[in-house]
Amino acid sequence: MEEEKLIDTIEDSELVLIDQEKQSAYNFRERRHSDWKENYTLSRDKVITNRLLQKQTINIPLMKYGLATVLKDIDEPAVTNFVNLSNNEEKEIFYNEGWKDCQKKNKARIKDRVFKKNLCLYGRAFRKLNIVKGKVVWQIVLAEDMLVDRFIDSTDIDSARILIQTNIFRTLTSILINDTYDQEGRDKLSDYHSVQNRTAESGTNTNRYRSQIDKMKDMGVTDTREPVVGATYIELNEVYRVEYDEKLKEEIIFLYIVADTGDGYVKLLRKPLEEVLGETNSNAWREHFPYTSAAADPESDDFWSDAPADTLRQPNKALNSFIGSLVENRILRNFNMHYYNSSNASFIPQVFTPSPWAWFPMPGNPNELVKDVVVGDLSESLDEMQFMIGIAEKAVAATSAQTGELPAQNVTLGQTQLALANAKERTKTMLIPIEQEYVDFAEKYIWLVEAAGHLLDDIKVSRKGKEGRQVYTKIIKSADYADDAGYMAEVKMKEDLQAMEVSTIQKLQIAREAMPGNPPLELAYKKRLVDFADLKSEEVKEILDYEKSRIDNAQNGMLPLNAPADVNVEQPQGGNIMPVA
Fold this sequence. Notes:
By secondary structure, the protein is α+β, with helices and mostly antiparallel strands.
């Protein structure tokens, strides 16, 4: 069977369009590849040597130092809470327990860190939502694996006409047994590999994957071109295209899954995204992708925006060149080189390649016979290096105070605090697009659970009782929180929540002073204090129950309202003590 009949790139007009759009999107992103590679290698303490500027494999860790400082101020994840729109508190509790379980199983804290690190390195970071084996999973996708059309609104990933995730590697066996793929495509792929007798690298021979291969080669991986694996791996592309649907009479998103053989494409799937993920009341998956994205420094006309690492890259390279020159200068000064008078036939030293202790013939008479080659002292360049480090730190707000380093000059505490506060405020500008990404992600999580919640496994939730001894378990099914009215997400950054709590406590303190002896106000004030203390739910309930009983006693004339907590008072029998949730 001929290869041209197996790979219908020419015959299938859809695949022709996909190939053209993929190449266009790749060209749009390609200008960033060399920058990303240098950002990544410098952050991993690797340098690329050359004959002129970087002879020594020495790296000043400015990139790692600067990015770690920036990450420190944006590291806290957002706090997401889901609200039931039909005001059903029980369903709301179950829904939020499902979210907590999802975060735990996805190792959300680590993935949040990786997401923000990618943001600092590449200027763009992506997350993808899916349901796999009964669980909601999300994946951090590298910018190098994502392609978008060049006319996208840079502030809205859902405005793209085409979005492609590349470099998805699956074994040939797993593809052939997957019933969700078209049988015709699977047969074609199987025949192609049977005829060609392809090996594990068959799916990696496209130019689009070369940048990742080279990046791993720089990290010391020696078998990037011919990996030793026990199965044939195929590169799949998930292609999301906006197309006109004849049934709906409108444009919607279609999902294509194609195998990139290096010689052409094999189409394994083409379906409306809404059919793949499921329907929602708002038909969300007709015009939204299961991806979210954030930009470190959003641009109005360029989706592939700059990153903090881009600001640090050139100073880091210059510093490496400086320190490399200093090292070489020290070597040459320690081991002298010499000129000698080559016209004196009686003096012929052994010839060396230019290096320490080398001899260089001269046609004239340098000091009769021998003259040292003078190597200048470059120690003054240390001041220039410090200047460059200072400029780079200021550019990314990585001040010495933020890194825990005390400034060399004598400054007051107020000046240090002011500089630190200003640096933090500059770093916070990155939190604006990050917070929007959290909102988008939470909203798409709602749509995914609404569309395919019946595919999710049951959740087992265990909690300790009031005394902290007994453990109680509840099995939560998707039907327990399913609601036609739906849910909305409330997303707050942890730092903002703490600031709001402190502000509320301060306002309640003022109200207490203005209205002394007010039992409901007193209870509200103390509830805020215990919530702010970040205690366990059973501890909060026990403390507030006790405070409520004290307030009731005060109202009954048994105890002053502001009596110390250690005053022993007999608990009243009966009484209408308000339960605390």
